[in-house]
Specification:
D-Maltodextrin-Binding Protein, domain 2, Fructose-1,6-Bisphosphatase, Chain A, domain 1, about 25% strand, 7 helices, binds D-MYO-inositol-1-phosphate, five-stranded mixed β-sheet, binds calcium ion, alpha+beta, 14 strands, single chain, seven-stranded mixed β-sheet
Amino acid sequence: MKTHDLMPFLTNLTEKAGEILTSYFNGKFTIERKDTSPLGVDIVTDADRASEEAILTEIRREFPGHDILTEETETVITGSEWLWIVDPLDGTVNFAHGFPHFCISIAVAQFNELVCGTIYDPLKKERFWAARDLGAYMNESRLKVSTAQRLNKSLVATGFPYDKAYSPINNVSEFSRVITKIQGIRRAGSAALDLAYVAAGRLDGFWELKLKPWDQAAGMLLVQEADGRVSDRFGSSMDYRSDNIVATNGAIHAELLEALTPAK
Ligand code: IPD
Ligand code: CA
Ligand code: CA
């Protein structure tokens, strides 16, 4: 199978999931807590579940035997060379509050190397997609990262983990170091869209700690294919399973890594 043969399937799949999310967003949905901590901020809606069910059904029908790693369903990894990495709704907290910024993110890996991915914003009808060595696109337009050269001229994004109230690894000290050095910072609430926006040159950089594979896999490939740079927070190469990520236009990468690191 050639990677780009998967793109029409990925397009239809995310289109279908996008229709499901939009109809829940414009109608009624239920919200459940996922964690048992006193703060209780990790939630799931029936829209997450319905989107995921539709996606899994289609993948299983079209590609039986492929493995699927997805957020809301425990899936059995059999060791297939193909792995689908699915976030059926990235930006659940936004969604639950009626804040119109969320997406579906799906990536495909072969032998653990990302080969293609799509991030679809169903409200803006923006489809960000990339295939290894074939480039990154939004709808039909080729994407390229921004040309910002310095942090003080950059707009960067980040996010915070759901256990921020209890864990010392909560991005608060990193955030307070970076905030004084940049032109602007955004916490828009969807890591996948943050990464897509770096690929599109709408953001110059992004970092986050404790993301899961489904939050970052498609977005990492988009940034790489748009000629950006992706590393872990120490500048080393990483894959979609790493729990910390820095993704930039390349030019501001070293400066952002330095800003994230405490002074000695
Ligand atoms: C979350 C979003 C958010 C990020 C969190 C993720 P979810 O994913 O991507 O921007 O800061 O770390 O868990 O829960 O909305 O799929
Ligand atoms: Ca997510
Ligand atoms: Ca999700």
